[in-house]
Design brief:
Elements lengths: L1 E5 L6 H12 L3 E3 H13 L5 H30 L5 E3 L11 H7 E7 L2 H11 L10 H19 L2 E4 L5 H15 L9
Parallel strand pairs: 1-3, 1-4, 2-3, 4-5
């Protein structure tokens, strides 16, 4: 069974997903990296997922995202093992991939307060999709819009407020093992 991590930008999906996969000895897939690879294959040009979004717009980006999730779904359907998957902050809002994400396995929402996320975004730099005139207000608005959707889609919500990466990883592992012991890749 696969574990798919969803949540807002900078909630820890990639960092924790990669660490979780290493702990469990299973593959890790980052949908943003798959989008970049797909774009490079189609165009012969290497761009980051942010650059793709800025240059080609959201519709094009969501189409690449849908294709990447479909390919991952097909790959994992044939696989006998499990994997940890990190999706972009908007992937869980893409109606074209809802059922595929659910069919992949356990969906875990990494919940972090908007205040903590804004602090993390400030340290890392503003994402391309935020309004340049009022980025923090726009981010808070996105959070209010997305959080209920993440909660509805998720099988499990884990709050990671105030935790460093190691403590967050420990809490995430415990939550999965306690709430869905037969769902993580090591149980297969």
């Amino acid at each position: 069974m696969n574990v798919t991590l969803i949540g807002m930008k900078h909630c820890g999906k990639t960092t924790l997903g990669s660490a979780l996969a290493a702990r469990w000895g299973c593959p890790f897939y980052d949908v943003d990296r798959l989008i970049e690879a797909r774009y490079a294959c189609e165009t012969g040009e290497e761009l980051s997922f942010r650059e793709i979004f800025v240059r080609h717009g959201e519709d094009y980006f969501r189409e690449l995202e849908t294709n990447a999730v479909c390919e991952l779904y097909l790959r994992e359907c044939e696989s006998k093992g499990g994997a940890v998957i990190a999706v972009g902050g908007g992937t869980a809002l893409n109606p074209k991939v809802d059922e595929l994400l659910s069919a992949l396995g356990l969906i875990v929402y990494l919940e972090v307060s908007v205040e903590e996320l804004v602090a993390r975004v400030t340290r890392a730099g503003m994402p391309a999709f935020l309004d340049e005139k009022a980025p923090f207000d726009h981010f808070a608005e996105l959070y209010r819009e997305r959080a209920p959707r993440y909660r509805r889609l998720a099988n499990l919500t884990v709050n990671l407020d105030g935790l460093d990466a190691e403590a967050a990883l420990d809490k995430l592992c415990r939550a999965i093992e306690q709430n869905a012991p037969d769902k993580h890749p090591t149980s297969l």
